[in-house]
Amino acid sequence: MSECAYCKQRKGKRSCPALGVICSVCCGEHRIVRVACPPDCTYLGTGSEYQQKRLSEQFMPLRREFYREIGEAGGEKAVALYNLIEVVTFSYFHGRRDGQDAEVVTAIQALRRTLSPLHVPSAPMPVFAEQLQKEYDTFKKQNPQQIADASTAPDVLDRALKFVSDFSGQDFQSQRYLSGLIGYVKAFHPEPGIRGSLDDCLDAALVRLARVVGAEHVVRS
After folding, report:
1. Would you say 55 and 176 are in contact if contact means Cβ atoms under 8 Å apart?
2. Does a structural domain hold residue 121?
3. Phi/psi of residue 14, each to 5°?
4. Closest Cα partner for 82 from 147, 129, 32, 35?
5. d(CA 1, CA 10)
6. Where are the beta strands (DSSP E) in the chain?
7. Which of 171, 175, 185 is nearest to 47 (CA)?
8. pLDDT digits (tens, 9 = 90+) for 34-59
């Protein structure tokens, strides 16, 4: 029997589509987090909730610090934009096993391009990128004073890209960001994803901003 392709110490008793063979310990501990598991892996479904919980605990303090950063840099409109990205991302991916962080990165990049003054229409967007663009356009049209616009959104989106990419890591087909976000919403702040209401989510975001920056009164315009 071959040795585990990850730890090189125990015997690899499980067939791993990403590495070849892997021991049960490394499979349980490192799937998705450090091993780029394909969505059709037979072992993935059994541990996905556990992995989401583990990653959510890592995600929570980093997410809190990121909200502080964008709140101080761009105020409530910046917070509203990133909160919109989180809500749309959770709504789109929370029931899917095949979602990848690269889809989120691509969608944010696409939104960033459309808001650039030098934007030139290119090839059709991927499905999730279209969804994010649609939700942003809809919310911006209905609530023009409540979310970052073309003059301020690019900076927020650049910061969001770095945050997502840093948490995702370098693994091909990584799901770390999605698992962290989904696990966080389920475990610590389930209301936005469950309600699915962008208005409610943005209200919650502004309350959170007030706590983060120490403002006595942060209200929606």
Report:
1. yes
2. yes
3. -115, 135
4. 147
5. 10
6. 14-16, 20-22
7. 175
8. 788 877 787 776 556 777 888 899 99
